[in-house]
Amino acid sequence: xxxxxxxxxxxxxxxxxxxxxxxxxxxxxxxxxxxxxxxxxxxxxxxxxxxxxxxxxxxxxxxxxxxxxxxxxxxxxxxxxxxxxxxxxxxxxxxxxxxxxxxxxxxxxxxxxxxxxxxxxxxxxxxxxxxxxxxxxxxxxxxxxxxxxxxxxxxxxxxxxxxxxxxxxxxxxxxxxxxxxxxxxxxxxxxxxxxxxxxxxxxxxxxxxxxxxxxxxxxxxxxxxxxxxxxxxxxxxxxxxxxxxxxxxxxxxxxxxxxxxxxxxxxxxx
Length: 270
What we know:
10-stranded mixed β-sheet, 21% strand
């Protein structure tokens, strides 16, 4: 059994698309938990409107609406309430790539030796989708895959809850803790999610870089020296300036060149 978790706060305009993608899954051996942070808009009302449809399919559907300390605290709260063996986070605005994602991963496949499953993610930017640069072999250097493409054992997530001192990279810290503990990571080979490239880690480049350095150090991983960090910061500041002030058409072409250099393939989304 799988527990799918959606964390949200004031997401009235976007929550329905995420719920629809969960409800559309052909696989039915899962429960769905929505952890709302006490929204002031109509988020909870929209979520409640789906209760009967989940009931018709025999899928457990729970809404937890109460204040929390932010994204990672909300995720921890939901994990404590989960009864599934695996946990998938599909937060508001994110969607499963197709209606057979869960079936492709869990029907007829044996993951008994695995602690964490991952796959591919399609990132949307400038109206186009491209593959997230998945690189599990570089986990000591960067986020190895998108957290939306992860299925983690519930017991693993309870052993290593998200550390709230990390405001941007608590999910990366979780992966490093699991990696250092010798957990088995397995590639499902499935395109799991489609997301918008507007998250904090994508737009606050300096904060993301410095926090990732601190996370790696805390996990006993060798990090660049001060001189190398200064060089990287110079480059990051230029990129941040471009993101903040360049016109859209210029940012689009810069990103197009970057994707070509990184060999990021385009994903066709219907």
